[in-house]
Amino acid sequence: MGATLLCELGLFLLCTLLCTGHAQDAVLTIEPSWFSFFIGEFVTFKCDMKEGEDTDWYYQIKKDGREFVPYNTHKDYRFEIISTRDSGEYQCSGSLVSSHHIKNSNTVSITVLDKPRATLTAGTTIIPVGGSVTLTCSVQSSDGWKYEWFRRTQTTSEGQIRDQQNRDIRVSEGGIYRCRGTRGNPAYYTDRSDDVTIEITFSNKVVVKQQPNWPQIFRGETITLTCEVQEGGETTEWEYEWRGPSTPTQWTHNNDVTFRVSESSSGDYMCKSRRRDDSYSSTEWSEAFTLSASSKSCLLCDLHLTNVIMVRTG
């Protein structure tokens, strides 16, 4: 009877070990729970023996099968990543203080990358009249990021855009934008992105006018084209840009261009304006003004033909 009881008890204990052994295995976790880290970030290993009290164990951490942190009484270990060589397979072991019984945990893989640079992209760099554009900040193959946004102009220093930590933001102001990613505690920052210049379009319309305002222009004559800002434009100091077959394309304070008409002068002329104190805001291009240069010789031919007709009919 006693032997039978002992046998049944042994079978019960064996079954208990087999059925619950996995539940009692040591567990290694990391915080933050990312798989990709960057040089300069911190990671904390947490080793849980799933048995007894924390003080019942000594704890060790191995990297790629070799001792990384020797046995000690701390179940948590925090360290700063300083090299891509910190990539590897990590495992913790526990040794019972009373019996030196050892338990090994699962392995956790960590990949370490060089410090990243944030990437800033824009759906479009021109804000339409009364509209906005979407800017997107991203960091290579990793998660857990919040984002910081910055804006500057030619006359103002760079400042952070407050209350904006999302990956995507909508902006309605012209200027130069940058962003960077941040995560972790203490905060870890990526390098700032490259600049993206955003321009805003004013609602003011511009028109091209010709002086002298003759219906027909001949080669060799001198004319002036003027870019005129309408709808309140007279109260603002503007710069002007021209687009045409023989006009400069750089911004200028002069709202007119004067030139001698030649055969190459024929074509479409357009202009747009921007405020002198805000180089990231401009009007839309004006409607095209079409210039057709006529030849004087053709006019003389027409006059001669008219005289001939008058003589013959006289």
Q: What's a concise summary of this model?
A:
The chain is 12% helix and 45% strand. It has helices at 2-20, 296-313; strands at 27-31, 36-38, 42-48, 57-63, 66-72, 76-80, 88-96, 102-113, 119-122, 126-127, 133-138, 146-152, 159-160, 168-171, 175-183, 188-189, 196-201, 206-211, 217-218, 222-229, 238-243, 256-260, 267-275, 281-282, 289-291, 293-294.
Helix content: 10-25%
Helix and strand run? HEEEEEEEEEEEEEEEEEEEEEEEEEEH
Beta-sheet strand percentage? 35-45%
Count of discrete domains: 3
Intertermini distance = 154 Å
CATH architecture of the largest domain: Sandwich
Q: How many E strands? A: 26
User: What number is the mean pLDDT?
Assistant: 84
**Number of alpha- plus pi-helical segments:** 2
What would you say this structure looks like, in words?
With 314 residues, the chain is mainly β. It folds into three domains: 23-113, Immunoglobulins (Immunoglobulin-like), CATH 2.60.40.10; 119-201, Immunoglobulins (Immunoglobulin-like); 206-298, Sandwich (Immunoglobulin-like). Helix content is 12%, strand content 45%. It has helices at residues 2-20, 296-313; strands at 27-31, 36-38, 42-48, 57-63, 66-72, 76-80, 88-96, 102-113, 119-122, 126-127, 133-138, 146-152, 159-160, 168-171, 175-183, 188-189, 196-201, 206-211, 217-218, 222-229, 238-243, 256-260, 267-275, 281-282, 289-291, 293-294. The longest helix is centred in the first third of the chain and has 19 residues, at 2-20. Mean pLDDT is 84; it is low at 1-23 and 298-314.
